[in-house]
What does this fold into?
Amino acid sequence: MLVVAQLLRTLLFGVTATDPATLVGTAVFIVAISLLACYLLARRPDRSGQRLAMRVPGSARASALVIPPVAALNMALNWRVEMGKTPEAGEIAPEFELLDSAGVPRRLSELAAQGPMTLLFYRGHW
Amino acid sequence: LADYRDHYNEIRAAGAEVGAISVDPPENSEPLRRGLRLPFPILCDTERRVVHEWDIYNPRERGGVAKPAVFVIERDRRVRYAAMDGVASRAPAAEVLRLLRNTGESQSVRCKVYIPQLADWLRAIRNSIRAR
It folds into this structure.
């Protein structure tokens, strides 16, 4: 899959080939389509003229059609919003204020005010 | 962290400061800071706000922790150096020190080709057991 992604990369513009939102969104989209296909098949009467498994109220049917695409869209959007962006060299790092372990509030701009600030992210205690 | 502690004086001599960030609460970070005798502060991103915003959040480990990463941030919050390695190790202090000394142009080290060693496999297995 990742090999294909590498190949596709040359064809894509604006989207990275391994973009998580796109990957997940596509997966959810495909699942939604197959659910829709199941739904349409289940609707069709079989030879005896009976509908298969269709004692579903209209509202539930409507939501079965509406919810999967909406959920897919929502998920893709949420992913975008929640995942920030790692600042790369040359960019401006986003400001933050956090308490240090002694309870003193520290702002990034103040920490970097004296000179270059080496910021170490580490995984923490376990 | 200990690596940066050992080079702390040299980093200070190069005109720079050091600070660490994790998602641990102060109750964990303060003993760690004392235990390792770190001369720099540890910031506590307990709400995981900054790690989210900087996209260095690893949700797969222990309810979500920060990935190991090193940034050198200039006075105007411009990033001079960014090193991020998804899995285990961190850019060594010596590398940052060299960068600080020759005040070279900015550079980004991302997604270096990473070949897991035996110890990394063991750590991964241990992490996945503890994540439960």
In short: The mean pLDDT of chain A is 71. Chain A has four helices and three strands. Strands of chain A lie at 97-100, 105-107, 117-121.
